[in-house]
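To the team - acetyl coenzyme *A complex, inputs and output below.
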Amino acid sequence: MTNDKKNNHAKLILPEGKIVTLPIIEGTIGPKVLDISSLYKEVGMFTFDPGFTSTGSCRSKITYIDGDKGILLHRGYNIEYLASEKSFLETAYLLLYGNLPDEKNKSEFVNAITTHTMLNEQISNFYKGFRDNAHPMAILCGVVGAMSAFYHDSTNINNKEERRIASYRLIAKMPTIAAMAYKFSIGQPFVYPNNKLKYSENFLNMLFSVPAEEYEFNQVFSDALDKILILHADHEQNASTSTVRLAGSSGANPFACISAGIASLWGPSHGGANEAVIRMLHKIDDVKHIKKYIDKAKDKEDPFRLMGFGHRVYKNYDPRAKVLQKIAEDVLKQEHKLENKLFDLAKELESIALNDEYFVEKKLYPNVDFYSGIILKAMGIPISLFTVIFAVARTVGWISHWNEMVEDKKNKIGRPRQLYIGEKPRN
Ligand code: ACO
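Output:
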């Protein structure tokens, strides 16, 4: 492949000598992109890129990641700035609309989200159909998908106002659905949303209050939860966001698409890793066992991986993990002895791994999941809800990407091809 600088084209020379000219396109920042969309038409060949390690699937204005430098920007704003200065709902507005809200927009948006928090009462019947030991992520997939059977007035994807209402409903109702999944699993009555409370306070109230007594708020916890939601709100074209886009590219309604995203997030290589980190730390149990587990992670014959370490895009410290380490310190000042032990263990594990040749050479650093579980656990949130919290936050990113895709006039149904390695025709 040669690069024709003058015309910003690359030339691909095929084995039989045919030359194909491919345009090189540029975004506002980030690496240049080779446009291969006409390749099959021109030469009858596909590209092969399992796991999409070198493939851009869309144009997007929402989030930018520089994985080598460890930079994450939402609509141009640094994640560290958003996490320290803005609320989750301000970040949600930014992701949805492209700019931070002024005071008027903020109060209208917060008011709109706050007044969409209740669910159609019949939805509560779904919960009774689940086994009491159902994983809350299983319930979340089902109930969010079922929203399309209730909110018919916001499923016409070609209507901008319906898309807006569906987006607000999803952002507003996710904490309610998530909290109900938890309450069902522990046999407690559902707690209705309280519109006097802020987004994260309301979420904690629905999770932990009971009708018999008043719930005492811990400001450090609700601030920490709000920041955790900001840090998980979006992350460009990750597996679950790409799933939402792919599902939506066929014209499916937003509730069905977000349900697909939840399913994708559930896996341990993606959003399920925060749960896996805590289980791993419990298994390691003591600083003196760290070496054994580091050796296991390095052993090619052993399937064990250091959970919360490594990332497809970050080849540097995940900036979200740094913010989370600081939040963990604030939350753990509140005397949670067990989690303090886990935190100390995690910090020691991080320091040993970051000085180990294997992790240095492969550029494996802590990712967002490494510290988030410790914080959530210290706040009293059970392990099975960790990925649910992630899903509540990521709903904002998913729905922003879904809107961007639907509004893109060039949007086509997503349809990757394959390298067929099965049987040739046979009788
Ligand atoms: N522990 C040990 N070795 C690792 C780890 C790890 N956590 N992560 C990657 N490696 C090694 C791989 O064995 C591979 O080695 P090789 O080149 O010798 O074969 C190399 O590093 C590259 O790993 P890949 O799996 O090819 O990298 P990929 O980009 O496909 O995977 C992933 C990224 C899935 C995140 C991976 O690092 C991993 O499994 N991490 C643990 C799970 C985790 O924390 N997931 C959360 C990700 S963040 C998020 O989704 C919110």
